[in-house]
Amino acid sequence: MEPLLCPAPVTRYRGFREFLLQIGLLALSCLLFALSFPNFLSTEGWFPLGFVCICPVFIVLHRCRWGLAPVYGFLYGLASYALFAYWLGKFHPLTLIIVPLIFAVLYLPTFPILKAVDRLFPKYGFILQSCLWVCYEYFLKTNGFTAFSYGSLGYSQYRFLPLIRVASLTGVWGVSLLVVFPSAWLGSVLKDGLRGLGASLKAVRIPALAYAAVLSAAVVFGIATKSDLSDARSWKVAMVQHNMDPWWGGYKSYKEALDRLMRLSTEALKEKPDLVAWSETAFVPAIDWHTRYRPDNETYALVKTLIGFLESQDVPFLFGNDDGRLKRTDGGEVRVDYNAAILFDKGRIEKTYWKIHLVPFTENFPYEKAFPGIYTALKNADTHFWEKGRAYTVFEAAGTRFSTPICFEDTFGSLCRNFYRSGAEVLVNLTNDSWSFSVTAAVQHMSMAVFRAVENKRTVVRSTNGGYTCVIDPNGRITASAPPFRETFLVADVPVYTRETTLYTLWGDWFPWALLAGSAAAIAWLLLRRRFAPPRLT
Q1: Half-sphere exposure for 443 (CA within 13 Å, toward CB)
Q2: Contact assessment for residue 428 and residue 318, using Cβ atoms and an 8 Å cutoff
Q3: What percent of the chain has pLDDT over 70?
């Protein structure tokens, strides 16, 4: 009877081997995910990997036990974003812990949902899984306090211009669906390994053929709808990249930054631009505040030097500044600060935009009463909290109307769309990416701005202090750029193209809502069908 005792150790061994296989597949997916975007090996990224990078995840979700699905989701979110956004550690070591933890929590419920779909729809569940993955990217990743658009799969295709122009209809979410579908399909085909591969391929060949037709149609659409910019009005912008973060070092850094900005601007003005753009908080001391209240004579003298320089110019200047204002509270008047973009003409403030979408934890933490410990820790870490702006401000210079999303605001399609709907003809993004000391981080940021251009068929200008200063035309093509992390300036002709209004500009993020509604309807239909199906005869 002793041979009957053997199956238990064999079963445990097989179970452990399967567990190691699943962990290995998740690790492979994390690596492929990171490499699909600009990464630690290639600053441009290997975008074809985006089409298969999630395949191992779908294989694991089919094979794993229910109890492991949320655990795997947590681990995958933690590891994938630690690899993808490794440069966050340059900002603060805690950031490289907090951001992956946020995505670990977001994936924790997502994986069980995807597994449930696999069980409910054993044959064609991969179609629904693709739709729900895009819903995760939109509803969980890009909304709420912790919204962080980095890593949405559609963004990996920023160099595949004929494909990404479908974003003018669907936003980046349509591109994400086209990218994730092959991973879900392959995951279904390979879920049981190579055993029965021929039968699996035959069973799902029709969806594969339909996908190939849709992908081809999307590419043809992108080629056919490429806008002719030959007769677009030209607007010349000088972007000054002074390659330093003025926040570090106090007055000495403020002065050195101003010296560089004035010197580079003087050179750029020789090319007779219509506008000179500096970066986000290029000049830190609050100009209006120091002019009104003069709390520090040394800093006020620096403000006067800047104003004197601007008064001597015939060209308007646009740049970021800490805009301090008095706010009435129950305890009296207190100073609040806005992360602002200010347009100056002859030294006078013409108009100001206050940043609407603040960076969580580093610019904004509205939960002081609920989590006083976290709030105190952030303040002790010298975190500069800003007040939130409300208005979608539109500026004008040399007959061109433009708006100024600040820093990572250009990673949110709905926010940039609102600027265009408010009357902007061009977006001028002001960014401080110098803290990252990473070309990879700068290119990842820039790659999302490419989609803001193609979604709305409008030009995007990016003026950074050390990141990726460039001009992106309405077709998604980078027409001019400056080398990252170099003290320089870029003067470029910016096409002002307003002939077309895209479906995305009109309807916004309708596509993920349609996917969510369709997915909910499919699940409801299946459950109702099972509930009211007649009993089978045995």
Answers
A1: 20
A2: yes
A3: 96
Q: Do the beta carbons of residue 374 and residue 365 sit within 8 Å?
A: yes
Contact, 515 vs 121, CB < 8 A?
Answer: no
- Determine how β-strand 470-472 pairs with β-strand 478-481: antiparallel
Res. 5: pLDDT tops 70: no
Phi-psi region of 8 (alpha: psi -120 to 50; beta: other; left: phi over 0): alpha
Note the pTM of the prediction, 2 decimals: 0.94
Q: Comparing C-alpha atoms, which of 139, 157, 142 is closest to residue 415?
A: 142
pLDDT tens for 400-427 read 999 999 999 999 999 999 999 999 999 9
Is there a catalytic annotation at residue 355? yes
Taking residue 183's Cβ as centre, other Cβ atoms within 10 Å add up to 27
Name residue 301's amino acid: A
Which one of 53, 407, 416, 470 is the catalytic residue?
Answer: 407
Q: How far apart are CA 188 and CA 169, in angstroms?
A: 29
Burial of 442 (0-12, 13-18, 19+ CB in 10 A): buried
Among 137, 280, 387, 409, which one carries the catalytic annotation?
Answer: 280
CATH 3.60.110.10 at 233-507, yes or no: yes
pLDDT of residue 1: 45
Q: 156-175, pLDDT tens digit by residue?
A: 999 999 999 999 999 999 99
Nearest to 363 by CA among 407, 331, 428, 302: 407
> 65 to each of 75, 119, 333, 502, 533, how far by Cα in Å?
15, 12, 58, 45, 28
Q: CA–CA separation, 287 vs 395, rounded Å?
A: 19
Is residue 428 within 8 Å of residue 401, measured between CB atoms?
Answer: no
**Neighbouring C-beta atoms of residue 3, cutoff 10 Å:** 6
Q: Which of 141, 191, 355, 457 is catalytic?
A: 355
Please answer whether residues 474 and 168 qualify as being in contact, where contact means their C-beta atoms are separated by less than 8 angstroms. no
Q: CA–CA separation, 13 vs 500, rounded Å?
A: 62
Rounded-to-integer distance, Cα 140 and Cα 134, Å: 10
Is position 327 annotated as part of the catalytic site? no
Domain with CATH 3.60.110.10 in the chain: 233-507
Local structure of 532: helix, strand or coil:
helix
- Is residue 4 pLDDT above 80, yes or no? no
Report pLDDT digits (tens) over 443-481.
999 999 999 999 999 999 999 999 899 999 999 999 999
18 is catalytic: no
User: In which band, very low, low, confident or very high, does the pLDDT at 537 lie, cut at 50, 70 and 90?
Assistant: low
